[in-house]
Amino acid sequence: MPMIKVICGKKGVGKTRVLVDSSNSLVEICSGVVVFIDGNSRSKLMYELNYKIRFINISEFPVKMNSSCVFLGFLCGIISANYDVNGIFIDDITRIVGNDVDELKKLFEGVKEISDKYNIDFSISIEGDPNSMPEFIKQYF
Known about the structure:
By secondary structure, this protein is α/β, with parallel strands linked by helices.
């Protein structure tokens, strides 16, 4: 059964490290594709990831991923190009789509639908106080 996992915490607590370690572990045991999406243009993450992981720096694309609809379309494009995606890791989702609660709710609903339909695990980091997160995010802690 596919899953969605959210790693939440304040800046500097190691959320990205957890994602990197988890993606490196998954790629060693799965036979499909593992994707790591980062929204930071100055990130050096690609050097810490296993060479088998498809690293995507979303800031390199000319389209602004400022809504859940645009980002979900981006995810669907990744999945349609790779029929065997096993896991998608997204670092700092609010840097990519913003922190509007309604947009985040739509995003998580869409990610759940994609995860269930295509049997893909998602791990998503989000910056903030875990206690102040909405229930639709807390359910994935």
